[in-house]
Amino acid sequence: MTEHIDSTKTYVLVFVALVSLTVLTTAVAFVNLGDFSVVAALAIAVCKMLLVALFFMHVRHSTQLTKLVLAGAMVWLGILILLTLTDFATRGLAGVPGR
Amino acid sequence: MTPAVDVERETYLNAGHDLKSWLLTKDHKRIGLLYLFTITLFFFLGGAMATMIRLELMTPQGGLVSSETYNKLFTMHGVAMIFFFLIPSIPAVLGNFFLPMMIGARDLAFPRLNLISWYLLVIGGLFAIFAMLAGGVDTGWTFYTPYSTTYSNSWVIATALGIFVAGFSSILTGLNFIVTVHRMRAPGMTWFRLPLFVWAHYATALIQVLGTPVLAVTIVLLLCERLLHIGIFDPKLGGDPVLFQHMFWFYSHPAVYIMVLPAMGVISELVSTFSRKPIFGYKIVAFSSVAIAVLGFLVWGHHLFVSTQSVYAGMVFSFLSYCVAIPSAIKVFNWTATLYKGSISYATPMLYAFGFVGLFTIGGLTGLFVACLGIDVHVTDTYFVVAHFHYIMVGGAIMAYLGGLHYWWPKMTGRMYPEMWARLSAGIIFLGFNLTFFPQFILGYLGMPRRYHVYPPEFQVLNVMSTAGASVLAVGYLMPMIYFIWSLRYGKVAPDNPWGATGLEWKTASPPPLHNFDETPVVTHAAYDYSTVTGEGIDFG
Amino acid sequence: MASHTRTETLALREQFDTEAQQKDASTLGMWIFLITEIMFFGGLFLAYTVYRRWYADIFAVTSSSLNVYIGAANTLVLLSSSLTMVLAVRAAQLGKRKALVVFLILTLLLGGVFLGVKAYEWNQKYVEHHIPGPDFHFEGVAQQGPAQLFFSLYFAMTGLHALHMVIGAGLLIVLIALAAKGRFSASYMTPVDVVGLYWHFVDIVWIFLFPLLYLIDRHLGR
Q: With a threshold of 0.90, does the pTM exceed it?
């Protein structure tokens, strides 16, 4: 339902941004950022994802429902990982053997 | 013998008679009936397993079957009942048939996908049946590792593949329902004019699409582990078997809401119609359905309380498990409030609705017992838990399914079922059910473990009571099989709206025409507006 | 309106009232399917998260055994295929049949290159005995178990991704055939649209797989 048709130029610019971010993430991996490395990598990946979603998948022009569906999926993925981590990240904290 | 329909009038039943017109149908109503046929088969299969289980448990030392066979029986009972009967049941039979009609649509959004869903269930089912016939699977329906991946010598792979395929049936049904409710509502059918049955199925569909894929990938990893020994769950390689449990229950807990939410949707319809009143607190009930779906995703760790899951996670999941009881309780209160000053009739569907409300309440309350960390340590993996979930699944979901089947039978077939026999069997089912499962609460609390085919002699009396109850229950279940089939030929011809119910499905003929409505309806009234219904042909047999 | 007397067309099937409704429904349907895919891959991302936290050091070493330049180049290949895919969708929206076919073919070719490179990489792993199983051996770590876990995740995740690419390639072939026959127009190009959505989604999965598998603590300089 995209009455709004983006220009080829827009798509090429987004592509250039994606390439740049790929180069960036590869380069940053060789820099010692300690624990921040994984945050940086994920942050860049999220930026790339947003570019692909908003521009290539036309989420920019899509209905509220589509945006809600996408956001919902991200939240659910978050629930899966974060709530499971409440277990794996807190084992051994209580000092109880085996827990 | 009265013909079911006017020979001239085209209905979905007589539009095409050959096998191809059924096996290649795109009609959601026919697909609903295809599902009805398939899941009934699996209900009997699961029931046969249950019969063997209860027979074995009549004596403390068993002796009817070996312990290995017993392991296979309870495993296959669970697999058949959960994946091939309960999960599809109400959505795939009643949801498929009535959701489009209730919103004023000609069909679902994707009819061919709907047919594919049915074939996927059948194919998955064939895998499972093959596994049963080839020797069975003995891991428990929960497939815990490392037994399922490494040590079991049974047909794990075939069964797991069957469940994998059936899972996609569920996913596609959910996808279809979500798109249909969003995009296919008739003019004037706003969200808050939808029957609560539709809200319930919408909430269920959310669970189906968000949860089932995680089960699918878990099964893939299970199969890789079993076939290739890659170590994902293997402690010897640094893996964690509890990771499997997390992934498995991330789906399997919400799965119980896939089973119970549609049941609640049916109950809303029944309670309203047979009190001749709108459901009390319509919006709250609608939101509660969605709340149950959402909260249901946050509690799976309560199945891991006695694993090596951390205590802190246990506390989080315990708290959240208490939260999820709230919207369910709200619904129970609202159904009860609907009865107040209502014009109550005790037709069979209403008897099932009453049964549901009472038994679901007991099941739900005992859920709170096991949601408490301290109590669960004592009763987990005992018959207490078995009784808890059977109160919900059988006392709740199956009763709602039967209630819905009776309620909509006239619409689907154009025939009334025999009311007296139906009330009798409802009563027998209620009695049989409680006799089967209430003793199990006591057994569990006294310490009898589940999945054991032998037990200390002091538990025999309660076990015999349970088995006796199971035989009564079996009689109760057989009766509708018989009289439903009988009614197809000899039942009274049904009017369009035998119950004086609201809802668009009652405004069209019984059975409905091929395209549901002769003209797309335009909706101008709220849901459950009894002023729109004349007291036509209310017939309680 | 007795709508069932209307003849069914591809753009307006009998269950729908308008072409816009059908297009909306199809697009929503694909988005819902994509969120099921997010949860499907999500299970693997969960396993990855759990084990990477537990075995951070070993994962860093095993990750370094992957060729980062090939991985990065392959990422660029896949991103290019996303560009050609969206240009194909644009061509379809504008009713430009030839451009549509050309861009679809380019997308397919780039996808093929990606898969070819992956096959090469997997073969490298086979030669180095990094494939999980009885022949597994990773030089340079004492604990072989977690190293094998890394590669189990590597093959599971890239394998599942590659499977989705192959399915995507199949869909592209169908689209190319239909487009060449002139089946699409500015008013009916929904299949191109939804396959595009699918293709971009598979690209997004790789956007995460690349840093998570190839770029773990590269600064340690193994």
A: yes
